[in-house]
Design goal:
Strand content: 15-25%
Low-confidence stretches: none
Number of strands: 9
Helix content: 40-55%
Number of domains: 2
CATH topology of the largest domain: Rossmann fold
Shape: globular
Structural class: alpha/beta
Keywords: Cell shape, Cell wall biogenesis/degradation, Isomerase, Peptidoglycan synthesis
CATH architecture of the largest domain: 3-Layer(aba) Sandwich
Mean pLDDT: 95
Active site: 77, 186
EC number: 5.1.1.3
Family: Belongs to the aspartate/glutamate racemases family.
Radius of gyration: 18 Å
GO biological process, one term: regulation of cell shape
C-alpha cells in the first residue's frame, strides 16, 4: 500500500450537520487522517422520511463522496445506517463502511435490569435494525424508545441552548424519570447533550455511538493497511447540499465546539 493511498480521505456523511458529532470522535481517535464531511441539510431530516427515500438519498451522497477518492466511508447517521448500510456494502464491497447504531449494548452492560431511554428519530426506532436490538436485549433491561424528530431541527438551526429547546426536551424526557441511562440514537443529539443533562439531572449516563464508530473505523483501516502513518494532523473539508454558506459556517462551529 503506497503512502498516497493511505493519505486519501475518509468520507463521512449525515442527513445534516449532526454527524459532525461523530466526525469529532473520528478526529479525536485518528487525528492524522484526512476527512471529507458531507451534510445533506437540504433534505433533512431523514428520520421522518420513508426507508426508500432515505436509501435513495444515501446512495446519492455516497456517489458524491466517491468523486473525492475516499478510502473508507462512515455513515454518521443512525437513520441512514438503518435504511441503507446493507445495500451500500453490497454495492461497494471493496470500500470499508462504518455504520452507526444506538449504543444500547454498553448501556445495558453498565445498567442491567434497569430503565434505559433510547432517543432517536422515528425511522430509526421503527426499522428492523433497532427492533432486533429490542428483541436481543429483551429481559436484560427496560428499553424505552423516545422518538425525538424535532431535536434534529433544533441542531440544524444551531439552536442548542434556547428556551424552546429546553421546553421541548422537558416535555419529552420528564415523564420518563427515573432512568439510569439515556442513549442518544441520532448523531445530531450529542450537540444537545448539555440541554438534555439539564432536564434529566446529573445521575443518568448519557451515551452515544460516536466513540464506537471511531474504534470500528480504526479497526477497518488497520485491517486494510490504510491507516495514515504521517505525523501531521489531517485536514477536514466540509460540504453541504444546502447552498447557504451559513451551513458550512455552522459545520465548522460545531466541529470546534466542546459537547462533553
Amino acid at each position: 500500500m503506497t503512502t498516497d493511498e493511505k493519505t486519501r480521505p475518509v468520507g463521512v456523511f449525515d442527513s445534516g450537520v449532526g454527524g459532525i458529532s461523530v466526525l469529532k470522535e473520528l478526529h479525536r481517535l485518528l487525528p492524522h487522517e484526512n476527512y471529507v464531511f458531507y451534510g445533506d441539510s437540504a433534505n433533512a431530516p431523514y428520520g421522518t422520511r420513508t426507508t426508500a427515500d432515505v436509501r435513495k438519498l444515501s446512495f446519492a451522497v455516497v456517489k458524491k463522496l466517491l468523486t473525492q477518492n475516499i478510502k473508507a466511508l462512515v455513515i454518521a447517521c443512525n437513520t441512514a445506517t438503518s435504511a441503507a448500510v446493507v445495500q451500500i456494502r453490497e454495492r461497494y464491497p471493496e470500500l470499508p463502511v462504518v455504520g452507526l447504531e444506538p449504543a444500547v449494548k454498553p448501556a445495558i452492560e453498565r445498567y442491567p435490569q434497569q430503565r434505559i431511554a433510547v432517543m432517536a428519530t422515528p425511522l430509526t426506532l421503527r426499522e428492523e435494525k433497532f427492533q432486533k436490538q429490542l428483541l436481543r436485549y429483551q429481559g436484560q433491561a427496560e428499553l424505552i424508545p423516545v422518538p425525538a424528530p424535532d431535536l434534529v431541527e433544533f441542531v440544524e438551526r444551531g439552536e442548542l441552548a434556547s428556551p424552546a429547546l429546553q421546553e421541548y426536551l422537558t416535555k419529552l424526557l420528564e415523564p420518563l424519570e427515573p432512568v439510569s441511562a439515556v442513549v442518544l440514537g441520532c448523531t445530531h443529539f450529542p450537540f444537545a447533550r448539555p440541554a438534555i443533562r439539564q432536564v434529566v439531572g446529573s445521575q443518568p449516563w448519557i451515551i452515544d455511538g460516536g466513540p464506537g464508530a471511531a474504534r470500528e473505523l480504526q479497526r477497518l483501516l488497520n485491517q486494510a493497511n490504510l491507516l495514515n502513518v504521517q505525523s501531521a494532523t489531517g485536514h477536514v473539508k466540509f460540504y453541504n447540499s444546502d447552498s447557504d454558506p451559513a451551513k458550512i459556517t455552522l459545520s465548522e462551529k460545531l466541529f470546534a465546539a466542546t459537547i462533553d
